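Obj.: predict assembly geometry.
Materials: sequence records (below).
Method: joint structure prediction, all chains together.
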Amino acid sequence: MALSTPAKFGASSAANLTARITGGKRDVKGRVVEWILLTTLGITLLVLVALVVNLLDRAWPVLNGRFGDFLSSGLDASNADEAGVWQAIRGTLTLAIIVVVVSFPLGISCAVYLEEYASRSRLARLIRINVRNLAGVPSIVYGILGLTIFVKFAGGITGGRTVIAGGLTLSVLVLPVVVITASEALRAVPRSIREGAMGVGATQWETVRSHVLPSAAPGILTGTMLALSRAAGEAAPLLLVGGITGLLRTGNLGLWEQITEGGFTSMPVAIFSYARQTGADFQAVTAAASLILLVLVVVINGLAIWLRNRFERNW
Amino acid sequence: MRRLFIAAGLTTLLVTVLIVYTLVKDAVSFFIDVPKYELWTIGWFPRRGFFDIKTLVVGSLMVTGVAMLIAVPLGLGVAVYLSEFARPRVRRVLKPIVEVLAGIPSVVLGYFAISFINPNIVTVLAPGANKAFNIAAAGVAVGILTIPIIASVAEDALRAVPLSLREASYGLGARRVATTFRVVLPASISGVVAALILGISRAVGETMVVAIAAGAVGGGLFSTDPFQPGQTMTAAMAALGFGSDQVAGDGLAFQSLFFIGFLLFVLTFLLNLLGDRLVRRVREEY
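Observations (raw structure tokens):
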């Protein structure tokens, strides 16, 4: 009988069986609970929609009226008609470059040490616990670290309240994120890959360089992009290390002098400056700047998540 | 190469050591120098010598409380739905969207709090609330920030429960609700609690939302009314550190920055340690 049972018959008999066991009663409680849970999800998604709609609505005067001018104007928290974001965008890009250069090699190296060289040593265990705790330290505390170490102690090298000090502070802030995600990516690479390389005589470093790291690359890349978007959206530590909130005069400093000795701002810091001003025209400026930052961060994040799902491999 | 990698690992330890060192050094000298009665007065006005710690702690607790009121039901609801009720295809679409929520910069949510949450939600539900800035609006926005953290940690915990437990429950005739709430949830309870603790830790440490939406940038009187402007530990630190305020230089007001920073660090450190331990317990069990 089992051989000739059509799928349809099987399915209906399963339904019959369910009906017999449950006495034909429908799972009312299950439905109700499912709807309640679905509502919580709906509210959460609705928040996202409300956020975007509200920003578009408030930003409309700027988006429609003087968007080009807005993109090319500098930071000015006293006059909404002159206010813009180009200094902020430049600041955020410079900060991002510093984060990429400093924290990515450092974080990935740390992860390689933890996963490939010392997975069971006591030092590695200590570092692991330490990294997890660092990941939970509030961002403003990193601002204090940046202020004391990068602005004051190492002021001779960083130039004080410069974009370099800001970038180093953000690099330290995202370091745990890079380490944790890179570790996870390395851990997902199966032993057989390593054994294969070792088996043909590769040294540990050769194994890591040409087998383990390439296999883990998509996962590592995802983690670094999440870290980058975190850095791009962070304002609190930058306020402490000197991110400028009022009016940023670049004067006639060259690009390099601007980086090594001039003041700096960034998108989140500029949004904070504008959000503190009152009046509908500043509302529009704040909303427009928020929209730009939101798009930037969501695109980086979305790309990272897509990348992860795209390259998710079950070895 | 090995040495290079060890050095990278040691850098992370150095970061912790430096954080603790910078915080402790100035926090201690603040605590020694400050007249103790100034730590318990009418409010937080660091430039005028009023260092009322309870103003900040109560402010932070109120923001965290409101945030949890929003984030716990929504975060756990999302976690349970995605893990136990959603079909795989639905889950594949919805989970990334929730993750996007986690990426929203806090300054943007701070602006959302004053431009949408306060006028459209808080002042409608509580007509007496301050029209421009108040703790409740900031708390709701912090709650929105916390939802994805609670949802993702709790969902991981729920999914760590082996399928065999669910199948056994179904085999005994339990339906989905009973299986979810009597079998899966109790089995993963330490992970769910960890999600809440990590959420609280995130909410306590959130700075920009509060700095934008709670008002009281320079200082504030002691208050327990969530519908009025208020000051939190984090917002007070931001106010001390930027703009004209940093002119205060090396005086007591400036050192109080390190003192609050130290309190905040210790508080979040303990919460994270606890949360982390609970997360690992779930992983070890299954």
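Conclusions so far: Chain A touches chain B through 97 residues (CB under 8 Å).
To do: check interface contacts against the pulldown list.
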